[in-house]
Amino acid sequence: MARAELDKQPTDVRRMFDAVARRYDVTNDVLSLGQDRRWRHEVIEAVDAGWGDLVLDLAAGTGTSSQPFADRGATVVPCDFSLGMLQVGKQARPHLPFTAGDGTRLPFADDTFDAVTISFGLRNIVDPLAGLREMRRVTKPGGRLVVCEFSHPTSAAFRTVYLEYLMKALPTIARAVSSSPDAYVYLAESIRAWPDQRGLADLVAEAGWERPEWRDLSAGIVALHRATK
Fold first, then answer.
1. Order of strands, edge to edge, in the sheet holding 113-119?
2. What is the pTM of this model?
3. Residue 116, class by beta-carbon neighbours within 10 Å (0-12 exposed, 13-18 middle, 19+ buried)?
4. Which stretches of 62-182 are assigned E, i.e. beta strand?
5. Is residue 222 helix, strand or coil?
6. Are 132 and 104 in contact (CB under 8 A)?
7. Which of 17, 120, 199, 229 has the fewest CB atoms within 10 Å of its CB?
């Protein structure tokens, strides 16, 4: 089972990410035309974590998004529900405390983290609203949330071109570079079905976070959402 359906049965999604783990980082770099590096940098800047901060990096995969927090002196906990991703990450970065966890039932106490971040993983949680509420639960009062997620290009003309690439070119490219290309059909479909910038901001507010805001990256292909507890 390499591909999950859009009803997002957790077992299917977990198996899908287990299947793509081996070449996940390389595939993302190719499919995003290298933009994923810039997006990760923007997340690091938005979280603004430093010495003494405790950061939860949810849907961390192999820890590529987590290492920069450690480089800045923060303590970061990479958490993911895919054991395949965690195993690949632990081999590459054995010094990081990789933790298995479901986004709707996080294995952490209330008010634990100074910041919680999730990049390109919220739409894969079976109940994104429940996931956002769980992130709030484990965040300290006054702590911050940073969500980086695919969104809707702000130009209608560009959105048409983007969707053509997403639904046709992306799976084709994935077949050449991914260890499980069928999974990227699901990923493309999940991106197309995801709410726009305002829709996600409203979901963040509904989960109890305060002062939700967003900033578009790459003409709205990606949006960086921020809020506080």
1. 99-100, 75-80, 54-58, 113-119, 139-150, 222-228, 210-217
2. 0.83
3. buried
4. 75-80, 99-100, 113-119, 139-150
5. strand
6. no
7. 199
